[in-house]
Specification:
Strand order of the largest sheet of chain A: 12-11-10-13-15-14
CATH class of the largest domain in chain A: Alpha Beta
Helix content of chain A: 25-40%
Mean pLDDT of chain A: 88
Number of helices of chain A: 16
CATH architecture of the largest domain in chain A: 2-Layer Sandwich
Oligomer: homodimer
Distance between the termini of chain A: 73 Å
Largest sheet of chain A: 6 strands, mixed
CATH superfamily of the largest domain in chain A: Domain of unknown function (DUF4445)
CATH topology of the largest domain in chain A: Nucleotidyltransferase, domain 5
Largest interface: A-B, 44 and 45 residues
Number of strands of chain A: 27
Strand content of chain A: 15-25%
Structural class of chain A: alpha/beta
Low-confidence stretches of chain A: 103-109
Chain lengths: 620, 620
């Protein structure tokens, strides 16, 4: 138990924080989610974390060399650096406007994303003073704690997570009955800490993708994002897409448990990395939210995903789920809760629901087509009058998979290509400007779009045979176009696009376009006013390229916008605001679902949508 | 997963049970809580488990030699022995009245104990047929299961223990959607099994005593007691009474966890032993109830008991508690729940509440004094108009502790003594008639009472110095009386009662009597109409001996009755009937508590109650 050496009031927020006489003001403030600016990240280099010590009744150390150098005459006005200053005893510290990092308090929002409101987190801290027991009042510790909560904060019928019971006797007696009580959903006490200043109350949001897992560490009270960590999904070696991962599970009995363990280890590593970066204990994380496609959701919970691959593709559950972190094996506080957002169907997961939350299309007027493009494409069409969704197996082409020279989006991956009409001279850009190693998803789309623009590819996807350029040649698998000769790449071969690559792109985009057309027909053919591109495959794609190859249904507006990792952002919204969870349930229930496997016209539309070009299909 | 080879309907109950083609009819019936009589316990010896096979569409083996011998001509009337008969395929089996063990279905009740009503257990099985998923109905497995529960059984707003989710896909598909669903408190699904015949739904009740732990395995549907197991509390080497065990916890940090682990191991061994005896899997145990004194309750939960030993002795909690078996570490079904009955105060535990439930004194007219005598004496006085309780530290004399030749109640322990007035010739009985090894609690009380009756002991507890008998002598620690010379015992010494032993008994009984008098005064001095003696110390004591030494308050009736392990019986009632749990909460809340430490007259009454003799105190 840390001994509290005094209380520091941070102005202008009026937030009182106990000091242990060892942590710097910056560290204390960050632990409690107060946004003090520190460009160097607290490494005592930048001098941006200036604060004014307005009052100090305890020990205040003399200025450090860095403070003398950076602050100079400001020292006389009681300015100090928060990173250098350690106070024992009671004090009042004012954080001036220039040192407040309030722009970054709230999760950064992309274009077209819903702005978060003031957090209304599921877990909140309450300060109470629990009276000591008396011979004339024989109420037990738990009962006195619960009546204090009822009397001071009006929290009725609150119960305790049984594992919190063990903390009660010591916590109630450590600070003369002053206790910070953390309550979930106004009903369940999930943590107790001694002292009157409720300490940090943190949460993690996870976007569990087939290929990549992202974890966001947030302060639940302020909404401040403390860390973002990314890792490859360690299940990937057991199947690049969900279907092959499901098949892997069916091979023998222990496989499902193995895959669950792998993804849990990955989440636990993200928790540890995020906590290390933010210098907080995982014990302070009392809530987590997970989103993912239905197969990832099932594997995370250890649920047999077999039936997701068999018509009619029923998931094991589709509503939301709360599960204790200890029951799942997630190493946050053992009394913390993991919330899984609802999903819609076997191939429309909670990631799609999170994308809807993030973009708010269910609350807005323009009829919007939301395309979450990965190995599986999830499409949502609608507006505040209603949504309808479907899922199409696009294949991995949008992520650079199944492409001869395709690579993941990593440094050196070609993400944009330009081909000069006439000369057919190729120029390109790569991620982080490194030497080119291959084409990532957006590079593939860009290359195909440029070949169409330059007249090299015809509408049916065939190369124009009359071309007379060194870059166009017949290879072992048919015609191919050289984008980068091997002399200009560290690879031992030319970076090329083959006829088969073109077909992969055609099939991927045809599946998406056919699905989008069927959604539009289901909405009575009303014109689409806006297109949002999300997900690993969608958000890095140039919308103009997507239009050029004919990804969109006919007569759609030019206005297509990439919105980044909308699923992860939606998970953060649901972490910070319990109203968003109810919203997700409503959305999941009310959104219509179109099972393309049951649509007789899908096959016909798929074939006609193979056509490359702005019109995008032969049906026009 | 056991393959089901047919369904057997047991008449007259109409209960349908799936057969695996390998288990005998007796075994099937017992697993499902049907009371078929089998005096030999199913060992194929007694021939009492006669049943009539009214219809059999599958394979019925020809009669065994035992069946031919025992049944003779009855074989022609389709009589068979349930222990010998294994049926594959559908069948109807009638259990005739003479083979029904309905007298023993319900937990055996002692005199003055509440008779259990038809069980209304917290967990019940429901049979449903869950429709298969269809392309036109995209409800997930969980959602289809829950709507079937709602539609067929009217169970609304039911949720699942998250760990049950893993079972869903296989169970829903194993018997064409026929599923037995086990629901706790009409709200939480805690188990799922394939097939339409709900299998056994079992429960364990535990009485966790300072010295002895008893576990009862019951069938929740029928109330049948399947096994009773007893073990010594393995914490005993770390302190014979609760105060020394609490002190042990305070010595170093890991001690509490060690004591918790010891008692949990003990409960887990009782579970394993009970399941082995009843030939059932611990997975079928979906509910447990624990009672114990407040210190045992805290140690079981791993709660710091330190403050129980410090005025004002506040417990960590006093209301009831539900905790998942997996969170406690009890190895029944991982989705099972452990319910801890409420307690009243630091020294009036849930065992006292269970005694009240068991004896029903809160619902009856006679003003009753309930004495639960162990190392700690818990006293309850009252009737349906109200109860008041107190706790007195009697010390271990009533259990044979702190007595020179005291032993636990085990074979060879002297439990009754007779001393011929005049000749002072001693005769005695021992437990199971074994050679005498020492005095157990009831033997000590019996010996003291006889010495009083014979005029050997005076009212102040001093030996009559004028005695002239070889058995009366001065030893190293003062006067002593020889009950059994060493020649008549396997012990290397005489079995004696010393002056110090007499003092121990005087102090123990004085504490109890003083507490009882104060309770009576708190009830306005109304005459006590009935005395019930419970607990290890109380229920084996001869009430006449108790009266002889002056254990009871003045002017109490002759009618004192031992009621056995009322606490364990009360735990069984609460296991079988959720209404009893609500009753326990009401009792715990409404029962008054008298803190003897705060009673100025206690000390004076304690001293005057040391007086030995029928009047029991010098105050008369």
């Amino acid at each position: 138990m840390v001994e509290i050496m005094g209380t520091i009031r941070f102005e202008p927020w009026g937030r009182e924080i106990g000091t242990d006489g060892q942590s710097s003001l910056l560290r204390l403030a960050r632990h409690h989610g107060l946004p003090i600016r520190a460009v160097c990240g607290g490494k005592k280099r930048c001098g941006t974390c200036r604060v004014i010590v307005e009052k100090c009744e305890g020990r205040l150390p003399s200025p450090s060399p860095l403070e003398r150098e950076v602050l100079g005459d400001l020292l006389k006005q009681n300015y100090r650096l928060a990173c250098e200053t350690v106070i024992s005893g009671d004090a009042v510290v004012r954080v001036p406007r220039e040192s407040r990092d309030e722009e970054q308090v709230i999760l950064s929002t992309g274009a077209r994303l819903v702005r978060p409101r003031k957090p209304r987190p599921p877990v909140r801290g309450y300060a109470v003073k629990v009276p000591a027991p008396r011979l004339t009042d024989l109420a037990a510790d738990r009962e006195r704690l619960l009546s204090a909560l009822r009397e001071v904060h009006g929290l009725k019928r609150t119960r305790l997570d049984p594992l919190v019971l063990k903390k009660i006797p010591a916590v109630l007696r450590s600070q003369e009955g002053h206790v910070a009580v953390y309550v979930r959903g106004l009903r369940e006490v999930v943590d107790l800490r001694p002292g009157s200043a409720p300490g940090p109350c943190l949460g993690m949001a996870f976007d569990v993708g087939t290929t990549t897992v992202v974890g966001y560490l947030l302060d639940l009270a302020s909404g401040m994002q403390l860390s973002v960590q990314t890792a490859s999904n360690p299940q990937a070696p057991f199947g690049a897409d969900v279907i092959s991962r499901i098949s892997h599970c069916r091979e023998s009995n222990g496989r499902l448990a193995e895959l669950q363990e792998l993804v849990l280890n990955c989440l636990n590593e993200l928790v540890a990395a995020a906590c290390a970066e933010a210098q907080v204990s995982p014990e302070y994380i009392l809530e987590a939210v997970c989103v993912g496609n239905t197969a990832m959701h099932h594997l995370l919970l250890g649920l047999d995903p077999t039936h997701l691959a068999l018509a009619p593709y029923p998931p094991v559950l589709q509503g939301a789920l709360d599960i204790k972190a200890r029951d799942l094996g997630l190493r946050i506080s053992e009394t913390g809760t993991v919330h899984l957002l609802p999903l819609k169907a076997g191939f429309v997961g909670s990631d799609a629901m999170a994308c809807i939350l993030a973009t708010g299309i269910h609350q807005r007027a323009p009829l919007t087509l939301l395309m979450d493009l990965g190995t599986n494409g999830e499409l949502v069409l609608g507006n505040r009058e209603g949504l309808i969704c479907c899922s199409t197996a696009a294949g991995p082409a949008f992520e650079g998979g199944h492409i001869r020279c395709g690579v993941r989006a990593r440094p050196g991956a070609i993400d944009r290509v330009q081909i000069e009409p006439g000369t057919l001279e190729v120029s390109f850009s790569t991620i982080r400007g490194k030497a080119p190693v291959g084409l990532c998803g957006s590079g593939v789309i860009s290359a195909v779009a440029e070949l169409v623009r330059a007249g090299v590819l015809g509408g049916m996807g065939g190369f124009n045979q009359d071309l007379d350029t060194a870059g166009f040649r017949k290879g072992t698998e048919g015609w191919e176009f050289v984008l980068v000769p091997s002399s200009e790449t560290p690879q031992p071969h030319d970076i090329i696009l083959t006829q088969k690559d073109i077909s992969e792109v055609q099939m991927a985009k045809a599946a998406i376009r056919a699905g989008a057309i069927l959604l539009q027909e289901a909405r009575g053919g009303v014109p689409i006013e806006q297109i949002l591109l999300a997900g690993a495959g969608g958000s890095y794609m140039d919308p103009a390229d997507a239009r050029e190859i004919g990804l969109f249904p006919p007569d759609t507006p030019v206005d297509a916008v990439g919105v980044g990792n909308a699923a992860g952002y939606g998970a953060c919204l649901a972490l910070l605001d319990e109203r968003k969870r109810r919203e997700a349930l409503k959305v999941a229930r009310s959104t219509g679902y179109l099972e393309l496997a049951a649509e007789p016209r899908f096959q016909e539309l798929f074939v006609s949508s193979m056509f490359l070009g702005r019109d995008g299909g032969m049906d026009l």
